[in-house]
Design brief:
The chain has 340 residues and is mainly beta. It has helices spanning 14-21, 27-36, 211-215, 252-259, 331-337; strands spanning 5-9, 37-41, 44-50, 98-104, 110-118, 123-126, 138-144, 155-156, 159-160, 165-174, 188-192, 222-227, 243-250, 270-275, 290-294, 303-312, 322-326. It folds into three domains: 5-55, mini-chromosome maintenance (MCM) complex, chain A, domain 1; 94-204 and 333-337, Trypsin-like serine proteases (Thrombin, subunit H, Beta Barrel), CATH 2.40.10; 211-328, Beta Barrel (Thrombin, subunit H). The strands form four sheets. The protein has a six-stranded antiparallel β-barrel with strand order 4-5-6-11-10-7. It has a six-stranded antiparallel sheet with strand order 12-13-14-17-16-15. Strand 15 (290-294) and strand 16 form a beta hairpin. Belongs to the peptidase S1 family. CLIP subfamily.
Length: 340
């Protein structure tokens, strides 16, 4: 394609090897790989690999100026006015970065199935499985500024939210090493076809660039997630009002002991957490929602998305932790992907 490249063992070319090992590989993907074939290295098929694609996409170093920073007061702002956190329902102004993903069915009906988080005016972070083959549905757009799905306008003691914003999708960017069968690299970005209009109730969340988030195991730490989900541990009816759910971090060693019976390996690029109350688990439609924490070293209390909800074995049960993508492992990829 005219770009600088090098002929290497396909296993050394991360982006092309991810295509090869994807269980959802298409005929077009196979043709693309054949076109990249450039010979053999030690008896193994070699491909012409872009120099950029050969780089590890998960190291943490780059900060994109398009991503808002907490020191500028432009992300993760604590809007709860020191109110008690942890009730069943979130307040009107809590978690203003939450996004609902809107899908179009084969009958042209619109449904909301997954969640996500706004990371700047143009990009939403979510789980790859929410945008890659989500049943027979097609991702149509996103909704920001939602609180109570049963009302046209949300009000509390005379304070009313602005109207929700429904924005169409311009581009879906799935992590190049996403593997649905192994639950690996389950992260994606959605570029919107127009910027979100930010206000008091629609704000981006901060990303965990600080060193403290890269090394933190979060074992036993209080964490939060939010969304709409379903009642009764995922077996009941959809919940209309934005939820506020407390989690407790679980170290990866313990998490691996639990999931080993399912032949699932929880790696360093993942986090585990269990709901503080089993029935309050983030179930069903909350896939892709952020796992959140506040900065303990900041008096501003900025919120950070340290995880993206990927999967859980037993919805609503504390003995089976939910597994999240560890966002700090993907900051370079996010920074390299986000554009003006």
């Amino acid at each position: 394609d005219g770009q600088a490249g090098v002929c290497v063992d396909i296993k050394e070319c991360k982006s092309l090897y991810a295509i090869l090992t994807n269980q959802d590989i298409t005929d077009a993907d196979k043709t693309f790989l054949r076109d990249r074939h450039c010979g053999f290295v030690n008896g193994t098929a070699a491909v012409c690999c872009d120099l950029e694609a050969k780089r590890d996409t998960r190291s943490v170093s780059t900060v994109n100026d398009l991503l808002p920073k907490p020191e500028d007061g432009k992300c993760g702002r604590d809007t709860s006015n020191n109110r008690l956190i942890g009730g069943q329902f979130a307040k009107l102004d809590e978690y203003p970065w939450l996004v609902r993903l809107q899908y179009k069915t084969e009958d042209n009906e619109l449904k909301f199935l997954c969640g996500g988080s706004l990371i700047n005016e143009r990009y939403v972070m979510t789980a790859a499985h929410c945008v890659r083959n989500p049943g027979s549905f097609e991702l149509n757009g996103v909704r920001v500024g939602e609180y109570d799905t049963s009302k046209d306008q949300d009000c509390d003691d005379g304070d009313c939210l602005p109207k929700v914003q429904d924005i169409l999708v311009e581009e879906i960017i799935v992590h190049p090493e996403y593997n649905s069968r192994k639950h690996k690299n389950d992260i994606a970005l959605i570029r919107l076809n127009e910027p979100v209009q930010l206000n008091e109730f629609i704000q981006p969340i901060c990303l965990p660039f600080s060193e403290q988030f890269k090394t933190n195991t979060f074992d036993g730490k209080r964490l939060y997630t939010s969304g709409w989900g379903t009642a009764g541990g995922g077996t009941g009816t959809p919940i209309n009002i934005k939820q506020n759910t407390q989690f407790v971090g679980v170290n990866n060693e313990k998490c691996n002991e639990i999931y080993s019976s399912h032949n699932i390996d929880v790696g360093q690029d993942q986090l585990c957490a269990s709901p503080k109350n089993g029935i309050d688990d983030s179930c069903k439609s909350d896939s892709g929602a952020p796992l959140m924490t506040q900065d303990p070293k900041s008096n501003k209390g900025n919120w950070y998305a340290v995880g993206v909800l990927s999967f859980g074995s037993r919805c609503g049960q504390t003995d089976w932790p939910d597994v999240f993508v560890r966002v700090s492992e993907y900051l370079d990829w996010i920074s390299q992907t986000v554009k003006a």
